[in-house]
Sequence to fold (406 residues):
Amino acid sequence: MDLLRLLGPLAWRSLWRNPRRTLITLAVVSVGIWSILSFDVLMKAWAASSQAESLRLLTGEGQIHAPRYLDDPSVDHSMPAPGGALLHVLDGLGAWSPRVRAPAIIQSEYRTRAVTLAGVDPAREREVSDLPAQILAGRYLAGPADGGIVIGADLAARLKTRLGKRVIVMAQAADGHLAEIGLPIVGLFGNTTAVQDEFVFTGLSRAQSVLGLGGSISEISFDIAPRATLASSVGALRRAAPSLDVQDWTTLSPLAFAMDTFSQTYTGVWLAVMFVLMAIGIVNTQLMAVFERTREFGMLQALGMRPGAIVLQVMLESAILIGVGVAAGVVLMLATLRPFAGGLDLGFLAAGSELAGGGDVLYPKLEPADALAICLTVWVLGVATALWPARAAARSSPVAAMGATV
Fold:
């Protein structure tokens, strides 16, 4: 500790013997940290947006189906409403919502479109999906027996129909015949164009009656409690209903899972690239500083300073220099994020974001744990790269230094 107290001020003063070189190195480190944190934040915001768009649409954090339903999503692969052990686990799990889903045809007085008919319980659906809150006109369904239909605003435009008009919905019933029913449009919802064009919603019991399912359902979407883990929750559901197919969101929404994995991998790759560039700059500047101070290091050894202390001094200089650069990079990153505290509107890029499964607004946020891990990694590796210049300084010859000063 005494040696550190002695060498610390000496290392700090040595950094400012050449202010231009020190400031250039600080700029390299701070910009490098800023770029790494920026890409990390943006990629995680994109992954979170993609995940939220998928999970809070209809997927949930997991779903339960009858065997083979995912391969052939028809009324032929329905399952009974939850009961017994499965119902007990679901009630203790968090939020869940039963649904009936079937391929259907919707027909207005002008046009016909292929859609997916979803029968839902509105109260439960609000707990696992954001769609009930995205009504642009009219209302959402009032209950499981609601005889109205909610469709996307874009679908209504394609069908040349509007709120209050009646449409015909046709789908294959459980006994094989073509079920047909007229339903009034009670609400128009807004989401991505693909979702608006694909899904139409009516009451759960109404859909069961039309399709001849009795009390059977097509799926159960669930969200787990905040403190629960997805793996353990899925395991509990599989034990409670071994004959059913229980899957989590990573299987049901591969695009969102790929984005989440890609964001982590990309950040690691960018960290490696930026660190190599920073390391080149740090080593070059430190080597130049060492060669310029050959006499100084030789004289210090002649006065009794051991080579190990010389190494420690150069390492301290690098640690201070990189530490200040890292701190400046974090401050720069926080300043960059401040204007986007309410979200980053993608504007004209929103259409491309929608096609890739993301939202039109990103919410970049700097996670303290992630920032600390990145900064510590850069700082430790940066100090380690200074070992080469430090060893070069320790090899300075006291005889050569004394001869140079005579």
